[in-house]
Amino acid sequence: MGKKIAAELILVLMLLSLLVIPFNVQPVRASTENPGYITTGADITVSVGVVTLTFADVTASGQLSVAVAPWYPPPPSPPPSDPPSAGTATASVASAGPPFLGVWDVTVTAKFTGSVTIGIHYGSLGGIPFHIFQSDPVLGDVNFDGKVNLADLVTIAKALGSTPGTPRWNPYCDLNGDGKVNLQDLCIALHNFGKTGNPTWTDITYNVDYPNEIIYGTTDHFSLFGVR
Fold it and tell me: What's the pLDDT tens digit per position in 129-143?
């Protein structure tokens, strides 16, 4: 037991020593980003793939990008609900399809005020209504306790060199989504060391347009949107 504790202390000291090394490692998403341009004004709508965003007021033009981030855990299952009657719209629609469809990382460089309406065309994602969830995690918070600390660094270090199917593989430690846990993932966590976030998933769904197969949510900032 004493040797194990000593070994972990040495590992932690080695990880901390990396904090003084300058680096510019940026998270690389394992997906294709689709940029869109946002103009100034009110009620500006921008569509990227199956995601459509409507801004209440854009004060400075900029870019929008949406990338798929598949490594975050799914939100909790919504309570079951009865099938909607014809011509009605409700936010409490239980998913009858895949338990977790994906996560979108939404980045907006334009300045905006007010709420943003999110529309996702679920017709191209299986044709079954789901919920939109929002989470504000910090990249590197692999145990999802709301902060990047030594516990996360040790967890990533224990998974170094692993790939899917190997004994030490931990998908949440693959921070750049390249299918392996290596020093790049460790550097990403070190870059965010000490940062805090909110890993709790919040249901932001407010309406379902059944005829057009679009589900809507609303938010006042962007982070990660999980869908069911």
Answer: 788 888 888 888 888
Domain with 170 in it: what CATH number? 1.10.1330
- CA dihedral (132, 135, 139, 143) positive or negative: negative
Q: Same domain for 82 and 159?
A: no
* Residues of the domain holding 170: 2-29+139-191
Distance CA 173, CA 199 (A): 15
* Structural tokens at position 2: 């004493």
**Mean of the pLDDT values across residues 182-195?**
91
Residues 87 and 153 both lie in one domain: no
Query: 60: alpha, beta or left, given left = phi > 0 and alpha = psi -120 to 50?
Result: beta
Q: What is the pLDDT of residues 110-134, one digit of tens each?
A: 899 989 999 988 887 777 778 888 8
